[in-house]
């Protein structure tokens, strides 16, 4: 603003930066007829006209309520409008709202949205401010494959490979779920890598040709997920053509190790106290498997323990494993 008078009024300012306590830093320059000037700085606190009460992160969560509030005490009326942004922010989302508070369930129709608030003061002057809304979208849909396509409960180590998922909110993580006919999902394994291996599965339902229906969910760092289904045939362990294998042998070699592997229990012991609950579960599985009849073995419990133990095992450093190499 420029004035020929030493009193400059009225002057309207935008809000200051939040991280600077809403302080606006201004400079007044006094100019003589020859163009020479002297400058003096001034500061003023300019508070925002609207404030956010809910879903206020830099990216709003879809499906949750965004709640804004007018901070204009001198305004006698309020109008709120929301526009979705394509090439331009000109798509009206929902009808305008009146009132000092504004709420909307954030949808994914537009990643970028603009909310305009207009407050009318007692003098009749309108004041309009803009609130920019960025919606957090789930990862771009990719696909996952499982190999081999069929195998046997407890014996076969499956590999799940995913690609094509992208999201600006890194890192991405992957969670495998088992889907029941009832619609319930049970988490099997979680990984920070797009290649998930090894994965042990219990047998599928006989009436569905032993087909296990799984879902892989790719999750961004803010917790939003995209899911893709995969299926695999898991036959009972007793149908394995290798008659030398039974449940107790499989469990013992996986947990205690053999001539080529140290075993999961050894590596978990090297992890320290944080893996105590896993060690306890493994011991319980071994005890129950070795003392009970084959038909009493809970295959689902064993595969769950093996998958959880594998997750912990992968987190161990090579130094920790080498340092405890003579444990047994």
How would you characterize the overall build of this protein?
The protein has 4 domains: 1-47, no CATH class; 52-134, Immunoglobulin-like (Sandwich); 143-239, Immunoglobulin-like, CATH 2.60.40; 247-323. The strands form 5 sheets. Strands 5, 6, 7, 9 and 10 form a 5-stranded antiparallel beta sheet that branches. Strands 12-18-17-14-15 form a 5-stranded mixed beta sheet. A 3-stranded antiparallel beta sheet has the order 3-4-8, with no helix packed on it. It is α+β, with helices and mostly antiparallel strands and 328 residues long. β1 (23-31) and β2 (37-45) form a beta hairpin. It has 5 helices and 18 strands. 23% of the residues are buried. It starts with 22 loop residues before the first strand and ends in a 5-residue tail after the last helix. The longest helix has 17 residues, at 299-315. It has helices at 247-256, 264-271, 276-291, 299-315, 318-323; strands at residues 23-31, 37-45, 50-54, 65-70, 75-85, 89-92, 97-98, 101-105, 112-121, 126-134, 143-147, 150-152, 158-163, 173-179, 185-191, 195-199, 211-219, 225-235.
In short:
This protein has 328 residues and is an alpha+beta fold.
């Amino acid at each position: 603003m420029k004035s020929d008078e030493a009193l400059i009024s009225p002057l309207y300012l935008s809000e200051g930066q939040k991280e600077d306590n809403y302080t606006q830093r201004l400079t007044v320059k006094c100019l003589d007829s020859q163009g020479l000037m002297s400058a003096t700085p001034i500061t003023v606190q300019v508070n925002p006209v609207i404030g956010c009460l809910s879903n206020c992160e830099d990216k709003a969560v879809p499906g949750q309520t965004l709640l804004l509030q007018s901070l204009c005490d001198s305004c006698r009326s309020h109008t709120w409008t929301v526009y979705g942004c394509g090439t331009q922010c000109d798509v009206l989302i929902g009808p305008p709202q009146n009132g000092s508070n504004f709420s909307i369930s954030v949808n994914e129709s537009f990643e970028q949205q603009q909310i305009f608030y207009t407050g009318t003061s007692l003098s009749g002057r309108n004041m309009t401010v803009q609130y920019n809304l960025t919606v957090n979208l789930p990862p771009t849909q990719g696909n996952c494959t499982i190999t081999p396509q069929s195998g046997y409960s407890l014996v076969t180590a499956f590999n799940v490979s995913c690609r094509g998922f992208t999201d600006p909110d890194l890192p991405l993580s992957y969670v495998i779920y088992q889907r029941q006919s009832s619609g319930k999902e049970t988490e099997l394994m979680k990984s920070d890598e797009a290649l998930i291996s090894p994965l042990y599965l219990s047998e599928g339902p006989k009436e569905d040709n032993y087909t296990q229906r799984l879902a892989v969910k790719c999750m961004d760092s803010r917790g939003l997920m995209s899911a893709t289904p995969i299926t695999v045939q898991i036959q009972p362990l007793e149908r394995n053509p290798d008659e030398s294998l039974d449940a107790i042998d499989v469990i013992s070699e996986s947990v205690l190790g053999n001539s080529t592997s140290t075993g999961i229990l050894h590596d978990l012991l090297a992890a320290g106290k944080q893996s105590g609950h896993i060690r306890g579960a493994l011991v319980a599985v071994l005890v129950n498997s070795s003392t009970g009849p084959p038909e009493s073995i809970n295959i689902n419990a064993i595969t769950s323990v093996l998958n959880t133990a594998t997750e912990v095992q992968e987190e161990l450093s090579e130094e920790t494993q080498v340092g405890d190499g003579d444990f047994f």
